[in-house]
Amino acid sequence: MQILRETNLEALKLAKELGPEKVLQILEKKSLVGRGGASFPLAKKWKLALNSKKKNKSKEIYLICNADEGEPGTFKDRFILKNNPETLIEGILIASYVLGVKRAFIYLRNEYEFLREDLENTIQEVIKKSKMQNKVEIEIVRGAGAYICGEETAIMQSIMGYRGQSMYKPPYPTEEGLWESPTVLNNVETLTCVAQALLYKDWNPNLRLFSISGDVENPGIYEWELGVKMSTILDTVKPTQEIKALSFGCFGGIMPIDKNSLVTTETICKEDCQHGAFTIIFIGKNRNIVDICLSIAKFYTYESCGKCTPCREGTIRVLNILKKIRDRKANEKDLEMSKELSYHIKETSLCGLGQSSTAHILTSLEHFKGDYMEYIKK
Amino acid sequence: MMKKQEKKGEKKEDILLNILHEEQDKKGYISVDAMKQISTKYQIPISRIYGVVKFYTMFRTEPQGKYIIELCGSPTCVLNESRDIERFIEKELKIKIGETTKDKKFSVYKTSCIGCCDEPPAMLLNGKPLTKLTIERVKKLLNELKKK
Q: A261 near A370, Cβ under 8 Å?
C-alpha cells in the first residue's frame, strides 16, 4: 500500500534542500488534496496561511493534525497511526518547516487513547533524529468524545480550552484560527501523504483509503484508485448476503448500490449525499433501513453540540419520529413530517454536522420508502 | 469571530483538555473541588471549566467503577448485533447504560463509533478496545473481572 511507504526522514531532508517555495510547487504539481472529505488542495491552503502571515508578521502559524476521526465506519487514521506513525510525524515536520510553525498539535480522539503512548514516543524519536528539537514542538491534545471536534472551528475552540462548538466563518482558520493566528488544519492521511508525495516520484495522487465494513466477509482498510468499479470492491470484500444499500458513514446518506458505478468524488453520491472520506458500510437485503437510520439518528442527537436550534432540537424530533415508525405507531403523515423537518434542519443548521444530520433520512426516504412502509400503520 | 484567548493561553501547560484528563487519570473523575483548584491555578473561570467538563462526554463528574465499559453504538456494530451484547451486559450487571454498579466495580456507557468497524461488535474496557465480541466472551470477561 502506498500509504504504508516509509520515508525515513529522507523527505524532510529533501524539503530542506529544496526550500519552502519549491516544496509548495511540487505538492501543487502532484495534486495533493485534503483527505478529510472536502478535497481542498493542500498547497493552496498552506499558501493562504503564509499570505495571512505576510500581512501580519507578528503572528505565528499554528498547525493542527486532525486525528479526531469520528465518522462512524471510518478507521483509516487509526490504521495509519498504528502502522506508519513515523511518516505522519515527518509530514508534520515538513509542514512545520514550510510554514515556519513552532507549535504543532495532534488532536487525538480519546477513543484512540490506547495509541497515545506509542505516538508520544514516535514524536520524540522522530524529532530527535530530525534534529528539530529547538525548532518545533508537537503536542498531543487529548480529545474527550465529541464528534463535532472534527470540524475545523470546533477543534480550535477545543484546543483553546472551550466547549467544542463550531463558529461562524469567515474568518477562516488560515486567516484567524488558534489564538487569532493563521492556522493550518490537515488530517492524518493528508500529512502522511505530504512526506510520501514529496519523496517518491511514482507517488499516485488518485489512490484513496477506503474504510469498509457492514455485511461483508472482509471488512478493513483498502487502497483503491478513484474510479474503481463498485463490482471490484464487492469482489474483494465479499458480501455475506445480497447488498441493497451503501451508507457513507453517518454523514453521507444511504444510497442504493449500483455494481457498475465507478467510485469517484463526483459520481459516488451524485447530488443527494456526500461520500466524506470514502467510508462505505454495506447493508444487506435482509436489513430494514429504518433500523439503520434509527442508530444514525441516535448518533446525531448524542453528538449535536447544542449551539444552533435546528440541530439541537431537530435531531431529537427526528429521532422521536423514527422511534414511532419503528414501534409501528406512525402513519404516512409522520413520514411527511420527518421529510419536511429533515429539509429544514439541512437548510438552517450552522455547521456541516447539522446540515448533514438528516442526509440518512432524506436519502433513505427517497430510495427505500418500502422499508418505511413495512412499519407504517395501514 | 474566534473567541479571544488570554496571552498566557499560549503556554504549553494551558491546554485545558489535557489538564482535565490528567485529573481524571488520577482520580477517575473530575470533582467540583478539582475544578475549583484548576480554576485558581490556571486563572480560568470556574464556569468555563464546568461548561467544558459537561460538554465532553468522556469527562465524568461522579466517581466511576473500577472497570469502565464503553459500548460502541455505530451502525456497523448495530449491524453486528451489538444491541444483544448491550442488553446482556445490562442484565448481567443489573444496571442501565450510564450507571455504575453499587459495588463500584463497573460503569457502563454507550459511545459513538470507536473506529473498530473491521472487527465488530466492539467496546472499550478502560480505554482499551475489545473486538469481535460475543455474549459468551463478554460473559467470561465479566466473570473474570468480578473476581478481581
A: no
As a whole number, mean pLDDT of residues A227-237 equals 96
Region at B14 (left for phi over 0; alpha for psi -120 to 50; beta for the rest)? alpha
Sheet holding A103-108, edge to edge: A137-142, A103-108, A62-67, A183-187
- From first CA to last CA, the distance across chain B in angstroms is 52
Residues 6+ apart with CB under 8 A from B39: B45, B46, B49
pLDDT over 90 percentage in chain A? 88
Between strands A243-247 and A254-256, the pairing is antiparallel
pTM as predicted:
0.95
Interface of B to A at Cβ within 8 Å reads 1-5, 9-10, 12, 14-18, 20-21, 44, 48, 51-52, 55-59, 73-76, 78-79, 111-120, 124, 127-129
Q: How confident is the model at residue B117 (pLDDT cuts 50, 70, 90)?
A: very high
CA distance A80 to A121: 16
Among A195-209, A233-247, A274-288, A326-340, which is the least confidently predicted range?
Answer: A274-288
A266 vs A69, higher pLDDT: A69
Cα–Cα distance, A120 to A198 (Å, whole number): 25
Count CA atoms within 13 Å of residue A368 on its CB side: 29
Which pLDDT belongs to residue A96? 98
> ipTM for the complex?
0.93
Q: Which one of A108, A110, A246 would you mutate to disrupt binding with B, by most B Cβ within 10 Å of its Cβ? A: A110
User: CA–CA distance from B27 to each of A83, B30, B53, B65 (Å)?
Assistant: 32, 7, 15, 11
Inter-chain CB proximity B3 and A114 less than 8 Å: no
Looking at this protein, which amino acid is placed at residue B132?
A: K
Side-chain-side CA neighbours of A362 within 13 Å: the count stands at 21
Q: Which of A216, A269, A106 is nearest to B117 (CA)?
A: A216
Q: How far apart are CA A31 and CA A106, in angstroms?
A: 24
Residues of A in contact with B117 (CB under 8 A): 72-75, 211, 213, 219, 281
Q: What is the dihedral of CA A9, A10, A15, A17, to 10 degrees?
A: 120
